[in-house]
Write a structure and sequence with these properties.
The complex is a heterodimer of chains A (262) and B (95). Chain A is mainly α and 262 residues long. Chain A contains 14 helices and no strands. Classes of the chains: A mainly alpha (262), B mainly alpha (95).
Chain lengths: 262, 95
């Protein structure tokens, strides 16, 4: 895991350590209160331990399941590897196969809402993450259609944008959309996907992402603030996802935001 | 057999898809495999429950400390905030 900044005005998540460029101005920074930081820290530290315990337990179970004779048991064992708390929480979501799309829609809404309010350096790692999480151009098209604006570019545009930081500031809706996709995926706990951590984070030397990061993150807080205010996003989340899961996320986010009020 | 089926339905070890496949094939499993499966589920669920409890305890302790240190003017806000976070964690990590 990347080292966390001690600066209480850090940009990005406590874990994501999104780097600040020297030109990042004070007004672009987000402030955590001491109480918020304490909660973020304990959630991150305990979350890491929690995640490791569950992954270890799953892998132990996997080894034993594979020794049994039933094909279904062996298959279930094979699917345990590397899965942590994420898998359990995800099981609470309704309609997992379509969640990628729903997450994208909700994410696009967040992205549109916060578009233009994020510092330029903030977006770049998220664009990479977002790009990796989106499946096909048809997924993009479907999401764009629902959103009513072009939140997501085509694959060729995505490829070219990765090496060009100016796109972040110039392509407001695109950057916001991909950021939003990332947040939407994050709300579905997809952001903590094994594929991202193994294939992208290690290869690109980006920080790994855990499910617990969302609360430790300014990204999560800002996104949740958007969710709560945005009627359409709220509708999607409450109608399409398990209300218990959504309620849990909302309660944590609301409490966390309340900690920040003076 | 019913007892094991119930455990399969309730465990956090398997996905819903795996649960359906295992339950459907349950009758074809040998007794030794069924016994082994039950033990595997028990071990995992115990670890999971324990890990959830440890996580909640760590978060709860921090929230309680924050509340205990609150100045009188901020007591109500912090009580509400910490309660919301606790209930959110409970909901999110409910079995």
């Amino acid at each position: 895991m990347a080292e966390k900044s001690n600066d209480p005005h850090f940009v990005g998540s406590a874990d994501a350590s999104i780097s600040k460029s020297p030109e990042t101005s004070q007004k672009e920074k987000f402030t955590l209160t001491s109480e918020q930081k304490q909660v973020a820290d304990v959630m991150k530290e305990s979350g890491e331990k929690f995640e490791k315990n569950v992954i270890d337990a799953r892998e132990k179970a996997a080894g034993k399941l594979k020794e049994l004779r039933g094909k279904e048991l062996v298959d279930a064992g094979a699917r345990q590897m590397g899965h942590g708390v994420l898998e359990t929480v995800k099981a609470q979501l309704i309609g997992v196969p379509v969640f990628g799309l729903l997450g994208g829609i909700a994410g696009g809404l967040f992205g549109k809402e916060i578009d233009g309010s994020m510092p330029s350096g903030f977006m770049e790692p998220l664009k990479v993450i977002g790009g990796e999480f989106v499946g096909s151009d048809s997924d993009f098209s479907r999401i764009n259609e629902v959103l009513g604006y072009e939140a997501f570019p085509t694959s060729s545009a995505r490829s070219s944008s990765r090496g060009d930081s100016s796109v972040t500031t110039a392509g407001g809706a695109v950057g916001g959309g991909i950021f939003g996709m990332n947040v939407g995926a994050f709300l579905g706990f997809e952001m903590a996907g094994i594929d991202y951590n193994k294939k992208v984070a290690e290869k690109e030397h980006l920080p790994k992402v855990g499910w617990y990061d969302w609360i430790a993150s300014n990204i999560g807080v800002i996104a949740m603030r958007s969710v709560i205010k945005n009627g359409a996003a709220r509708f999607i989340l409450t109608e399409a996802m398990n209300p218990i899961t959504v309620g849990g996320i909302f309660n944590i986010a609301k409490g966390y935001l309340q900690l920040g009020k003076q | 057999m019913q007892h094991l089926k119930q455990k399969i339905k309730e465990t956090t070890l398997f996905s819903d898809e795996d649960k359906i496949a295992i339950l459907a094939a349950m009758d074809s499993y040998e007794v030794s495999d069924r016994n082994a499966l039950e033990k595997i589920i028990d071990e995992f669920d115990q670890t999971y429950r324990q890990s959830v409890a440890e996580y909640k305890k760590a978060v709860g302790t921090t929230l309680d400390t924050i509340f205990a240190k609150a100045k009188p003017a901020g007591t109500q806000r912090l009580q509400s905030a910490t309660s919301q976070i606790k209930s959110g964690v409970d909901m999110l990590l409910a079995p």
